[in-house]
Amino acid sequence: MVKYIGKRLIYMFLTMFLIATATFFLMQTLPGSPIASYNKLNESQRAIVEKKYGIDKPKPVQYAIYMKNLAKGDLGTSFVFKGKSVNDLLVNRFKPSFILGAQAMVFGTVVGILLGMLAALRQNTFWDYGSTFFAILGISIPSFVFASLLQYWIASEWHLLPVGLWNDGWKSSILPSIALAMGPLALSARFIRTEMIEVLNSDYITLAKAKGANGYEIAFKHALRNALIPLVTVLGPVAAGLITGSLVVEQIFAIPGIGEQFVSSIMTNDHATIMGTTLFFSAFLIVVIFIVDILYGIIDPRIRLSGGKS
Amino acid sequence: MKRNKLLLLLALSLILSAVLAACGGKDTNNTNRGNNATGQNEGNGEPDAEQVLNLIEGAAIPSVDSAIVEDQVGFNVLNNVNEGLYRLNLDNVAEPAMAAEEAEVSEDGLTYTFTLRDANWSDGTPVTAHDFVFAWQRAIDPDTGSPYGPFMMSGVLKNATAISEGKMDKSELGVVAEDDKTLVVTLERPVPYFLSLMSFGTFYPQKEEFVKAKGDAYATNSDNLLYNGPFILTEWDGTGDSWVYKKNEHYWDADTVKLETINVDVVKDAATAVKLYNDGKKDRAGVSGDLALQYAGHAEAVHQPQTSIFFMKFNQEKDGKQTPLANINIRKAIAKSFQKEDLADVVLANGSSAANFIVPKDFAFDENGNDFRDINGDLLVYDADEAKDYWQKGLDELGVTELELEILGGDSELSKKMDEYFKAQLEGNLKGLKIKLKEVPFAVRLELEGRQDYDIEVSGWGPDFQDPISFLDLFVTNGTNNLMSYSNPEYDALIAASKAELALDPAARYEAFAKAEKLLLEEDAAIAPIYQKGLIQLQKPYFKDLGVHPFGADYSYKWAYISGKNK
Predict the structure, then answer these.
(1) Does A30 share its domain with A124?
(2) Which of chain B's residues have a Cβ under 8 Å away from the Cβ of A38?
(3) Contact A165 B70 (CB under 8 A)
(4) For chain A, what is the domain count?
(5) pTM of the model
(6) How much is the ipTM here?
(7) Which of A81-90, B119-128, B267-276, B288-297 has the lowest mean pLDDT?
(8) How close, in Å, is residue A75 to chain B by CA atoms?
(9) What pLDDT is attached to residue A299?
């Protein structure tokens, strides 16, 4: 296990390195300069400003400097937020994004699992069709459409929750979390239903029933635990979906999060912030996938991570 | 002054639209109201007991360091928390602010002497002439790396260009504090609009002691700043999407300021902004695109004219070869072949209006207060029949029967709609013309323009200061923003004269501008004006006396107040 984790950690660093390198050079192909008023200056004034920001050096040199600072955990200084480090920017904006993401993930998977179980246990009934319909809606409608609908009906028309902004405590987080949760919810419902039906037809469930275990015990202890494994597999990609969803959902609800910052840094050619947010999102995803892999072993001891002799 | 320019992206115009300075000091005695940029919600009621305003900004604050700021939001914040020698009033006239009275100007127009009023910083210490010298030197100092310092000062303040290029020490800049209350400014050449620049953020004061004590942390959040304006900034963490203005009790004119608190949140989604407005959470919200169509007739809709002009640039030379657009008849044909009123009212429908000129209306005024637009009238107007004649003549001269041209435009929904309209109008009116559309993001467009890799570009310009030269300077031969190989020696001579021998003769100077604009449009059809931008804003009826400025910072809250909110 330790060996496995060690190996995984090395791969994780390698992945981050490749992402940082690729992003750095791809970013250079963005048209325009990170200096907003670039075209207002004459040649020698431009040269002075470029030198000040360190973008006068050849690209490989800039790359080396960036990677050196990155190794020290320094993401550099934003071109747009003058004099402010990208680290601070991310820290300040991390909280709302994290709250929304975590709430969406928890709400989405828990409700999704319950819906999926309901469908499986009441197969081919109204409950089954209802939950399937709901799941298909959730998968096919993007989160920002949900966001707009929720915002229009629940906030604007019925005045039950705030239209947007991040100044109303927990109330501010409900609608964006629900909008983001629709994807994970639908996905988990579909997965759990399929797996549960299969597990419920297996021999050991019949055995449990024969032993006289009650319905709840069978459903949660025996069936669900086994049905969870494939769901855990997709949690990584689901987390990725949450990030991409949050880019737009944060904008719609005017949430001061990272996703919103990511979009505007690209629009303004803010190289340091583009790098910082990309690396942050990548690190987040890589860690989530790593945790998911570790979770396998815990949920299902049959999956042996070190693969082989142990 | 350099030909400094800012091309506006249609789609991002709210964010990117040009910033800058203000108006000439010539009619500062004019205090009649009704000139107010919005002309709406003018105060007449009693202020409420509670003076709290809730506003929306389109982007976060990148910086509040006056030497560094280069964006619209930053300049807007600066204008409300700090103050320069002059300030734009509700009528958009620059009037003495930190200066106690009108500046004394030497006969050659090169030396301005300002006497400062007794005013304090928010820490209670006095604002002195040294604070101006320090701030201006800091803005031009290459070590600061400010783009806007060199941009605003080069060619205006004595020695600014040399200092910004690192060839001279910053202490040589043409600004000197004779004593604590007397500031003497020396210019490179007479600049008739110089006083209007004094209301611009880059020329605000900074207290040396405070800036040096804070070091790198200066202006990184609301605690690391000093304020000498109507409000102080609070609850700004440096990168966040919300901040609060509180009334500055140390402000010299604090009696005038009625608002106690202004809560600002960044909202980028226009539909969300309108929902917050309808919900009563915000007191003002911009509407654009489809929303503009929907809300144009709304009882609380306010039309806010702007001073950006959008126009077609005709590229006359590509890859070292003349293009068909080097033919004057072809240019005239295209310029006269599309109906602008329909475009503005039906296609754009966002408060914009048709433009038959390059110097916008309600922008520049002669010494008698007459709008430059009324003096020079409409030029190069739509006329499909004339266009057809010019077209035939042009084709004959080129010896061809058909032409294919590309229109380079922005990639927003609105830009695309507009381009489709041009295609339909041009192809419909000009037989044998085929239009190809190329719609790209802003930065790509600038790059293509820089290489002159286009036929016709839909371009925009917002003024840097209140003078026609801010627009007319764009089209001189080899100007850094000409980028279409237009060249007319007569035009160049007129512009050069306005900066030299005519600089101190306002009447002759305006005559030269009028002549130059006629040459550019009527004679040469070097460009084809399309529209003057406007905005539609929703504003609560109880929100009174917002200062809306057509150049420089967008808004002033100094005079604003709430009246009748809870009735």
Answers:
(1) no
(2) 147
(3) no
(4) 2
(5) 0.86
(6) 0.86
(7) B288-297
(8) 15
(9) 73
Taking an 8 Å cut-off on Cβ atoms, the answer to whether A37 and B147 are in contact is yes
Q: Is residue A282 part of a domain?
A: yes
User: Do A218 and A290 reside in the same domain of the chain?
Assistant: yes
For chain B, the domains span 59-266
Residue finishing a domain among A74, A103, A135: A74
Tokens 């400097």, residue located: A65
Contacts of A37 in chain B (CB under 8 A): 6, 70, 147-148, 151
Contact of B197 with B156, CB cutoff 8 Å: yes
Write the CA distances from B67 to B142, B151, B199, integer angstroms: 11, 11, 14
CB of B477 less than 8 A from some CB of A: no
Q: At residue B217, does pLDDT exceed 50?
A: yes
Q: How far is CA A27 from the centre of its chain?
A: 22
Inter-chain CB proximity B165 and A151 less than 8 Å: no
Out of B50-59, B73-82, B244-253, B288-297, pick the least confident: B288-297
What are A127's two structure tokens? Answer: 């409950």
Residues of chain A with pLDDT under 50: 308-310
**How far is the CA of B9 from the CAs of A261, A267, B308, B437, in angstroms?**
20, 12, 11, 17
Whether residue A163 sits in one domain with residue A241: yes
Fold held by B59-266: Dipeptide-binding Protein; domain 1 (3.90.76)
Lowest model confidence (mean pLDDT) among A225-234, B473-482, B502-511 = A225-234
Report CA dihedral (B123, B129, B130, B135) to the nearest 10 degrees. Answer: 80
**Do residues A146 and A221 both lie within one domain?**
yes
With CA atoms as reference, report the closest residue to A273 among A96, A129, A68, A81: A81
pLDDT in tens, B161-207: 999 999 999 999 999 999 999 999 999 999 999 998 999 999 999 99
Scanning A173-232 for CB atoms below 8 A from B yields none
Residue of B72, B64, B71 lying closest to B231 (CA atoms): B64
Q: Number of CB pairs < 8 Å for A and B?
A: 147
Contacts of A288 (CB under 8 A, 6+ apart): A235, A236, A239
Where are the alpha helices (H) located in B224-267, listed in sequence order?
Answer: none
CA distance A280 to A243: 11
CB contact under 8 A, A31 and B446: yes
Q: A132 and A192 in contact (C-beta within 8 Å)?
A: no
Question: Is residue A16 included in any domain, yes or no?
Answer: no
- Give Cα separations from B246 to A222, B44, B122, B235 (angstroms): 62, 24, 12, 10
Looking at CA atoms only, how far is residue A168 from chain B in angstroms? 12
Flag whether A220 is in a domain.
yes
B470 contacts chain A (CB < 8 A): no
B376 exposure class (CB count in 10 Å sphere: 0-12, 13-18, 19+): buried
Q: Is residue A167 part of a domain?
A: yes
Q: Identify whether residues A55 and A184 lie together within a single domain.
A: no
Per the structure, the complete domain to which residue A209 belongs is given by 95-304
Tell whether B255 lies on the interface with A, counting CB pairs under 8 A.
Answer: no
Residues A43 and A180 both lie in one domain: no
**B275/A37 touch (CB, cutoff 8 Å), yes or no:** no
- Nearest residue of A to residue B164 by CA position? A45
CATH classification of the domain holding A251: 1.10.3720.10
The verdict on A157 touching B (C-beta cutoff 8 Å) is no
Q: What is the DSSP letter of A161?
A: S
B15: pLDDT strictly greater than 60: no
Do A111 and A255 lie in a common domain? yes
